[in-house]
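so ive been stuck on this for like two days lol. basically i have the seq below and the ligand is S-adenosylmethionine, smiles is in there too. i just want the complex predicted, nothing fancy, no docking runs or whatever. if the output looks off dont worry ill sanity check it later, just need somthing to start from for the group meeting slides
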Amino acid sequence: MSVIEVSIDQIEPNAWNPNVMSDEEYEKLKTSIEVTEGRYLKDNPLLVRTVNDHYEIIDGEHRHKVAGDLGYKTLWCRVSELDEEEAIELCVILNKDRGAINYFKLSKLLSTFYKPYSKALNQEHLGLRFGYAQNSISQIIPIFERLQMYLYIDTFSNFQLVQLARVSNEALRTLLVEKMVEKPLASTTLQKTATKLNSITKYIEEEIADERIRTIVLDKLVSLGPSILGYDLSALKNEVKKFFNEEQKKRIIHGDMFDEIEKLDTMFDCIFTDPPYNISYENLVKLEGRKDFDSDKGEWDHFTPEEYLEFTRNWVKNAVSVLKPGGSMVIFTSDNYLSHLIDILIDNGLKKRTTLIWKKDNPAPATVQTNFVSSYEFIIYASKGQQKTFNWLGQNEMHNVISSPVVSAGNYGHPTQKPVKLIEKILKSVTDVGDMVLDPFAGTGSTAVACEELVRGWVMIEKEEEYYEIMQRRLLK
Ligand SMILES: C[S@@+](CC[C@H](N)C(=O)[O-])C[C@H]1O[C@@H](n2cnc3c(N)ncnc32)[C@H](O)[C@@H]1O
């Protein structure tokens, strides 16, 4: 490789050298050049390559800078034929053990220029290529990707960059970066804080399976602000538990209420529900010379009368076990089992308060015209002992016959879906803001929609996948 003398104006530093020169290094270099009257520069030529109409420095950026400041017009250069990738590699290797390396720039270089690394090479390969141990590479690599969005990154040391980039969760990392900008933490505190934030992130990931709740809990934790950086891990875990419990209150459960109720750790202010009426069993009508008339609502509504009474006794007992003293119970039913249901409620220690009638403004027309059109349903209202909540809404609002249209075809996803406004009207009287409501036969979640409107907490249980999914779409949008 020949050495030639090149005009200093034709030489340019490269854009990716991560090496930084300290003031002390600058002074030392200046002294070396001055005491040797420039001989130092001739004995240590720059390493360059030709790029378009200039020479790009591969090695010697600091000599170039100091010589320029001292007024040199030419510099001795060794010209190589390396392509860009080879030049970058050599530049990093030569600078690695000299002076300081800016880890942010190095990380940018490693991750931007060496994209193929992620596909074809592992960190060990990348380390070997640049002369870094694999553990250094694994610390340096995330820096650019995780910290590039913070404008003030220049102010951080390599150690601080490594610690900040270790924090895997973006929201918690931002909190820590902001704290460091405002008032930097000492090295060991910073290191411990980064470890703690990763531990709490791992804890949240392990403990909270539902991604939606996980995000909400994390947002709530972050909203407490930089003060949480001073909490110890157990205090952070307590906050997470608290937020999780708060959020868990609103829950859609896919399962059988007989299994799920006993797993609940909440007591409810109200059970508001619309259980199977067992009308499918009766409604298979054999018609002489015509196709059977069948208003079957689904498998979930198939019981013999004895099975149905047994089923009703069991579900009421389960539901009452999670109803707070003074809590209210509201149950849709038909006339077929009305008196049985009232007896069962009384057997379970409830006090029947009234039977409301939902008068349907627009009942479904009768298909078989051999009886009156069915245009009402019953709603039993009971309480566990003396009712703790009853909001009187005015004489005209409190009639126990309530008129309301049925859910119009096309708007429903369930054959027996109940109108949200009707549910709201009753819920408003028997619960307060913030009360918890359980619907163990939730269908498409109409009770929860009403609760959302009235700011009540809720837990919905539904066993049929089809309705559970409709409910999820309705409530989690
Ligand atoms: C009358 S529907 C409720 C409709 C609901 N009110 C609405 O507006 O969408 C009764 C629901 O209870 C569900 N169900 C029946 N037995 C159940 C059980 N053991 N556990 C949970 N859900 C059950 C049925 O799948 C059905 O969707």
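Residues 442 and 462 are 5 Å apart (CA to CA). The chain has 19 helices and 17 strands.
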